[in-house]
Amino acid sequence: MRSLRGFRDPAPSRGAYKLQRLMLTPLFRLFLRVGLPFGTVALGVGLYLADQERRDALILGAADIRRQIEERPEFMVNLMSITGASAEVAEDIREIIPIDFPVTSFDLDLEQIRARAEELDAVARARVRVRTGGVLEIEVAEREPAVVWRMERGLELLDAEGHRVASLTRRTDRPELPLLAGDGAYLAVPEALTLLTTAEMIAPRIRGLLRVGERRWDLVLDRNQRILLPEAAPVAALERVLALDEAQGLLGRDLTVVDMRNPARPTLRLSQEASETFRETRFDLTGSQTE
Q1: Cβ atoms of 93 and 140 closer than 8 Å
Q2: Residue 284 or residue 117, greater confidence
Q3: Quick one: which of 1, 169, 179, 229 has the fewest CB in 10 Å?
Q4: What are 107-117's pLDDT values in tens digits?
Q5: Amino acid 285: pLDDT
Q6: Do 129 and 137 meet the contact criterion of CB atoms below 8 Å apart?
Q7: Would you state the pLDDT for residue 11?
């Protein structure tokens, strides 16, 4: 019988067997391929960044690289262009948006610039962009004045929605715009414009609209005449007055007030001279005795 001494057992050891079994596990192979290299790199980076001076040097280096990129000529803005605005509004925009040029486009907050421009009463909308060539362009849509509002502290220009546009020094500076007066008139500008459009046939006689009690309008005409309109359905009431004027020449008569506050009972108020003439005529018609 041959001796087995000197022959190596081909079976793997216990440790080698367990290692082979682990290598057959997908999760262990993934750890060797990904987890171990990543962990080694992370450990190395962590040990390197543990030193404060190294961290500060990296931060300064990254900031320097970023600044070099941001200050490249293609990213620099050298001037501001304002379009769609009058000279006065453009000057106001430049005052509230002071920018020291040249400046990198990365330092410009376009949304904030747009919001600042729209804070001006005269600006309805603004659009801001950086145009090629290093130009900051602010495109402005101005509010169009529609009426003049007379208040205790002066005159204001309002747009068709009642938003303030600018102050006005003298009424004669904008004679083509209709005049509104009274507290709260700015809250009902659309209604006022509708009334003025309805009364277009007597436009040369209109002096303005007076807001009464912040709830209704008086249409003020020349010759000290007024049309007192109701709070509800003022346009319909005005149309009735205009129809009577066209059919019977109502507003051409010697009267001071056409009161339509109660549409069911319109009231006319004669002038003092007309009232006296009416009383005298009525007295004569009743049969006064004369010597």
Answers
A1: yes
A2: 117
A3: 1
A4: 889 999 999 99
A5: 38
A6: yes
A7: 59
CA distances to 111, 135, 267 from 79, in Å: 18, 5, 65
Together in a domain, 205 and 265:
yes
End-to-end alpha carbon distance in the chain: 183
Residue of 97, 155, 145 whose CA lies nearest to 121: 145
- pTM of the entire structure? 0.69
- 88: amino acid identity, one letter: E
Q: Produce one character per residue of 156-187: b if its CB has 16 or more CB atoms within 10 Å, e if not.
A: bbbbeebeebbebeeeeeeeebbbbbbeebbe
84: domain CATH number is: 3.10.20.310
Residue at 35 is within a domain: no
| Cα-based distances in Å from 111 to 70, 118, 128, 194, 266 | 19, 11, 8, 36, 56
Q: Are residues 208 and 279 in the same domain?
A: yes
Say what angle helices 234-248 and 189-198 make with each other, to 10 degrees.
20
Residue 113 belongs to domain spanning:
73-142
